Amino acid sequence: MSTNNFWGKSRSTGMNVGLIVRVGLATLSLIGSMALAWTLLSPHQGAHASPNTSSPATTATSTPSPTPTPTGTSLPNLPPGPVHPTWYFAEGKVGQGFTEYLTIQNPDPANACNITIQYLLSSSTLNPISLTIQPNTRWTEGVNNDLGIAASSTSYQGVSTIVQVTNTPTCKGVVVERPIYFNNFFGISSGTDALGATRLGTD
To answer: Which structural domain range is residue 27 located in?
Structure first.
């Protein structure tokens, strides 16, 4: 009795039959895959419009927007700012690297302002300096020039100041600030600005 039979045939014959069956199945599978791919990818399959019909191309159209017209707001009818006829500055300094200015603003659009600048020094009082500030104008007055002490001077002068309008009520008042710039003051170079006081204080 032979133990090498496979389906009633010898082992070698059974192996050949199995190989043929496997190759055949692989070939059928490959053919089926190709047929499916051809069906899915073929341009002639699926729902297509008739070659005699054509859909019109869609064209984007732009709607012109109206040109905006700027509309401004008229200037409000306000009083000419926080003005005052008299401004006080308690301290200032010129020389030894210090440069001091007085900036005087006349916001009145029509009337000029006549003013006097009174410098009060640590040891004396100078004669007042008279100026006319034109309408809607800011004037810069150099305190170093008025006192004759350059910023580069080794000496200095401490100074207090009174700025006063002399033609009220034609001029209702001005606005006065005092910028001071300094170089190498204890190793610092910078500046400061102060708005004047409109009334005297006790300290």
So the answer is: 5-37
Find the Cα–Cα–Cα–Cα dihedral 72, 73, 79, 82, rounded to 10°.
-70
159: nearest Cα among 198, 123, 195: 123
CATH of residue 133's domain is 2.60.290.11
Taking the CA atoms of the chain, what radius of gyration do you get in angstroms? 50
> Which amino acid is located at 53 in the chain?
T
pLDDT in tens, 18-62: 667 676 777 777 776 666 666 655 555 444 444 454 555 555 555
Single pTM value for the model: 0.60
Q: How high does pLDDT run on average in the chain?
A: 80
Which residues, listed in sequence order, are joined to residue 141 by a DSSP beta bridge? 102
